[in-house]
Design goal:
Blueprint: H1 11-18, E1 23-25, E2 28-30, E3 37-42, E4 47-53, H2 57-72, H3 74-77, H4 81-97, H5 99-110, H6 114-136, E5 143-144, E6 152-160, E7 163-167, H7 173-187, E8 190-194, H8 201-213, E9 220-222, H9 227-236, E10 242-246, H10 249-259, E11 265-269, E12 275-278, H11 284-296, E13 308-312, H12 313-329, H13 348-363, E14 367-370, E15 374-375, E16 381-382, E17 385-388, H14 395-398, E18 405-411, H15 417-425, E19 432-436, H16 440-449, E20 454-457, E21 476-477, H17 482-487, E22 490-498
Parallel strand pairs: 7-8, 7-10, 8-9, 10-11, 12-13, 12-19, 13-18, 17-18, 19-20
Antiparallel strand pairs: 1-2, 3-4, 5-6, 6-22, 11-21, 14-17, 15-16
Helix pairs in contact: 2-9, 4-6, 4-8, 5-6, 6-7, 11-12, 15-16
The chain binds NADP nicotinamide-adenine-dinucleotide phosphate and magnesium ion.
Length: 499
């Protein structure tokens, strides 16, 4: 990391980056109790971009207490759902109005191309807030008819689960934060948000906007800091009713252990090693670019990235040729350069981790057909990489690399769908899968056999708020999006009335 001031021309953004960022607790910006700061860098240059506050257990405790007071305060508890929705719509409008500024901050902090920050991150976050704002007025219980003797009125009520800790990763910082904040608010919860230490800036901006639109103090609290300190304190805190987490499976397991203390509710969106299957009858003109971008897009730092590719032998060479052609043509560079299609990976550590995986593939005698190296110079860049001659036992086929590295494998006519599905299912993960064929029976029979939270037929990646998203097996617990995504922030109460 080098200590230089980044070249940013916009005055507002420059002022934001040079601000001494604080924590947001109980409606006020406060210094961290440790007085410590964490530098955050621009992964395209390795330069320090800004500094954020290093919150610790003392700050987490203050934030959780504030969230508890807000949760119990009539200003929030008795706020009609339509008023809650109005605040959320206002936050969406404020985010939209500040879109360009936030997109630049997100691109500088995370490395993603500015166009992705605009069109995917900020636009997605606005859409997410509006989608969930709609749910605030639509959550409710049911009336049922008990079979016990007597005459009854029996109904269920959905109540907010309480104080929720939101812990998000660095790969899509704003969108991940909003995808948790929005359903939590819609359900009537109060929150403590802990962003990733590498990418906290957009969460700070989001919190500033939430303050401006008038959420009551303590409803939204922000504690930046490290996972080991702030994150661990949040998952251990007995005053937290639920943790909503997106990140690695390893941290997910720590959360499961920590939650046992007070039996916190948990939703976990974890890693993946998602397969793409291409059959010989597929529309290759769509399948090839989709399969390529599902692993190279966002530099492969996508939980649902299509990192394993199974192609029928009849079209294997044609598909590989197309993917290699795309890998070679992609413009890898600084996210702020309009020509850039693929940005850097998030950090030096992450670049080294990906290179270790590539080396392990070579050691296991897999063949690199394109890419395979880091790109030298400032910043943390990796060539889009494709491996052939891989076997199921290899680390590069089993483990999540979280970089632009694809493992391609052929399948044959004599392989039935059960065998093919079992190859697809043979990792600890089960987040997403893509199936490319024009045969509807093959498509649906394979979809049925895949142990995967999402199966996409003739399409790749992309989430939709109307469709639940989450993982089988070690890809997670619970689902985000849709009705189930909001209901995960509620408790169900059964009320029996003997008449
Ligand atoms: P990570 O290390 O698990 O970090 C995720 C978040 O957890 C960060 O805010 C991190 O803080 C925090 N954290 C770390 N240790 C903690 C602890 N002991 N207690 C509480 N919080 C702690 O994951 P990452 O490396 O940032 O993100 C990449 C991973 O996320 C990949 O495995 C990817 O598949 C997964 N992911 C999944 C989805 C999905 O929807 N399924 C989406 C995106 C990413 P610090 O960063 O400050 O340490
Ligand atoms: Mg950064």
């Amino acid at each position: 990391m080098t200590e230089t001031t980044p070249v940013v021309t916009d005055d507002n953004i420059r002022a934001f980056l040079t601000t001494d960022h604080q924590l947001f607790i109980d409606g006020r910006w406060v210094a961290p109790s440790s007085q410590r700061r964490i530098p955050t860098e621009n992964p395209a240059t390795g330069e320090v971009l800004s500094h954020v506050a290093a919150g610790d257990a003392t700050d987490i405790d203050r934030a959780v207490m504030a969230a508890r007071r807000a949760f119990e305060s009539p200003d929030w508890t008795y706020l009609p759902p339509a008023e809650r929705a109005k605040l959320m719509f206002r936050l969406a409008d404020a985010l939209e109005a500040a879109a360009e500024e936030i997109a630049v901050i997100e691109s500088l902090d995370n490395g993603m191309p500015l166009s992705s920050a605009r069109d995917r991150a900020v636009t997605g976050a606005v859409e997410s807030l509006r989608y969930y704002a709609g749910w605030a007025t639509k959550l409710g219980g049911e009336t049922t008819t008990p079979s016990q003797p007597g005459e009854w009125l029996a109904y269920t009520v959905r109540e907010p689960v309480g104080v929720v800790g939101l812990i998000v990763p660095w790969n899509s910082p704003l969108l991940m934060a909003v995808n948790k904040l929005a359903p939590a608010l819609a359900a009537g919860c109060t929150v403590v948000l802990k962003p990733a230490e590498l990418t906290s800036l957009s969460a700070i901006k989001l919190t500033q906007l939430s303050e401006a639109v008038g959420f009551p103090p303590g409803v939204i609290n922000l504690v930046t800091g490290t996972g080991a300190e702030a994150g661990q304190a949040l998952i251990d805190h007995p005053g937290v009713d639920k943790i909503s987490f997106t990140g690695s499976t390893a941290t997910g397991k720590r959360i499961v252990a920590a939650a046992a203390g007070n039996m916190k509710r948990i939703t976990l969106e974890l890693g993946g090693k998602s397969p793409t299957f291409i059959f010989p009858d597929a529309d290759l003109s769509r399948a090839i670019p989709a399969a390529a971008m599902s692993i190279f897009g966002h530099t492969g730092q996508v939980c649902a990235a299509g990192s394993r590719l199974y192609v029928h032998r009849k079209v294997f060479d044609a598909v590989l040729e197309g993917i290699v052609y795309r890998a070679q043509g992609l413009v890898v560079g600084d996210g702020m350069d309009p020509a850039t299609e693929i940005g850097p990976v998030i950090s030096e550590g992450q670049r080294n981790r990906i290179i270790d995986y590539i080396d392990s593939g070579r050691d296991d005698a897999a063949e690199v057909v394109v890419g395979g190296s880091a790109i030298s110079g400032p910043g943390y860049f990796i060539e889009p990489t494709v491996f052939l001659e891989t076997r199921h036992s290899m680390r590069i086929v089993q483990e999540e690399i979280f970089g632009p590295v694809l493992c391609a494998m052929p399948f044959d006519d004599d392989e039935d769908l059960d065998t093919l599905a079992s190859r697809g299912n043979d990792t600890i993960y089960g987040l997403s899968a893509s199936v490319w064929t024009r045969d509807i029976s093959t498509a649906h029979r394979l979809a049925r056999r895949l142990k995967s939270g999402t199966v996409r037929i003739n399409s790749a990646l992309g989430v939709d708020y109307a469709m639940p998203f989450g993982g089988y097996k070690q890809s997670g617990w619970g689902r985000e999006n849709a009705r189930v995504g909001v209901e995960n922030y509620t408790e169900v109460k059964s009320v029996f009335v003997g008449l």
